[in-house]
C-alpha cells in the first residue's frame, strides 16, 4: 500500500520550546523527513511540564505559525495542527479548571503524559477528572508506564473509563526494548491501541519512523490495521 496520507499526532518538531528540535534548521529538516515518508497531517505537541518545560502558549504559537509558513513556501502542502503534551501533575489539573487548554483539533482532545511515579489509581483518577472537566484524553506512549507494564490489562480499564491510548512507532519497532514491543503487540491484538505516533524529537536519536512502522504493521497485522492506526484514527481525532 502507498503510505501517503499518514497522520502524526504526537511529535516535538517545533524549535526553541522544549527538548525537541534544537533550532529552525533542524525543525525544517524534521518536517521535510516527515513529508518524504508520506506524512500529510501533523499535530505538534510540545511539552508542558512544571519545572522542566514551561514555554508559554504564546511562544509555541509563534513558532508554529513560522514553521507552517515555511512548509507552505516549500510546497509540502501539509495540514498542521497545534496542541501540547500535557504532563498530568497537580499543576495541570489546576490549570484545566482555570483556563482553556490547547486541544488537538476542535473536539477537546488533549494528549496526557504520565510517568513511572504515577500509580495506576492516580492515573485513573486524573483521567476521570479530565473527562469531567470536558476534555477527551489521549494517553501518550502508554507502553512506557510501569503501572501498565506491571499489569497490561489495566490498559483496558483506561479505555473503559473513556481514554484513548497512543503508542510510539519506535517502541513498536523495538527501539525501546523488547518489553515495550511485546506489550504493544498485546495491546494491538486486544484492540486497545487507538493511534501510533512518532514522538519524534530530533534527526539523530529520536527520528520520525512512521513509514518504517507502517511497513512493519502492514506485514504483521495487515494493510487495513496499519492504515487505521497511522491514518484513519488519528485523522478522525483531529477532524472528528
Structural class: alpha/beta
Mean pLDDT: 96
Strand content: 5-15%
Number of helices: 10
Order of helices and strands: EHEEHEEHEHEHHEHHEHH
Instruction: Count all strands and give the number.
Output: 9
The largest beta-sheet arranges its strands as 3-5-6-7-8-9
Rg result: 17 Å
Tell me about the biggest sheet? 6 strands, parallel
Given as residue ranges, the uncertain stretches (5+ residues, pLDDT < 50) are none
Per the principal axes of the C-alpha atoms, what is the gross shape?
globular
End-to-end CA span: 25 Å
Kindly state the percentage of residues in helix. Answer: 40-55%
Would you give an account of this structure?
With 240 residues, this protein is of the alpha/beta class. 46% of the residues lie in helices and 15% in strands. It has helices at residues 24-37, 57-73, 90-98, 120-132, 146-150, 154-161, 169-172, 178-189, 210-221, 223-239; strands at 6-8, 39-44, 47-48, 79-82, 85-87, 109-113, 136-139, 164-168, 195-197. The chain is globular, with a radius of gyration of 17 Å. The mean pLDDT is 96.
Amino acid at each position: 500500500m502507498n503510505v501517503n496520507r499518514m497522520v502524526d499526532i504526537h511529535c516535538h518538531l517545533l524549535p526553541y520550546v522544549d527538548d525537541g528540535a534544537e533550532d529552525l534548521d533542524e525543525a525544517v529538516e524534521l518536517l521535510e523527513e516527515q513529508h518524504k515518508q508520506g506524512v500529510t497531517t501533523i499535530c505538534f505537541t510540545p511539552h508542558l511540564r512544571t519545572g522542566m518545560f514551561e514555554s508559554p502558549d504564546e511562544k509555541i504559537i509563534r513558532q508554529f505559525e513560522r514553521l507552517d509558513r515555511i512548509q507552505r513556501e516549500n510546497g509540502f502542502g501539509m495540514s498542521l495542527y497545534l496542541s501540547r503534551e500535557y504532563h498530568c501533575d497537580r499543576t495541570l489539573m489546576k490549570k484545566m479548571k482555570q483556563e482553556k487548554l490547547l486541544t488537538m483539533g476542535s473536539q477537546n482532545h488533549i494528549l496526557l503524559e504520565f510517568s513511572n511515579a504515577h500509580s495506576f489509581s492516580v492515573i485513573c483518577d486524573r483521567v476521570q477528572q479530565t473527562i469531567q472537566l470536558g476534555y477527551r484524553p489521549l494517553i501518550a506512549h502508554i507502553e512506557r508506564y510501569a503501572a501498565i507494564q506491571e499489569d497490561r490489562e489495566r490498559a483496558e480499564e483506561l479505555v473503559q473509563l473513556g481514554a484513548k491510548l497512543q503508542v510510539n512507532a519506535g517502541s513498536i519497532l523495538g527501539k525501546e526494548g523488547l518489553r515495550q514491543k511485546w506489550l504493544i503487540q498485546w495491546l494491538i491484538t486486544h484492540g486497545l491501541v487507538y493511534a501510533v505516533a512518532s514522538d519524534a524529537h530530533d534527526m539523530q536519536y529520536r527520528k520520525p519512523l512512521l513509514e518504517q512502522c507502517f511497513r512493519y504493521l502492514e506485514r504483521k497485522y495487515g494493510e487495513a490495521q496499519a492504515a487505521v492506526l497511522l491514518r484513519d484514527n488519528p485523522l478522525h481525532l483531529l477532524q472528528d
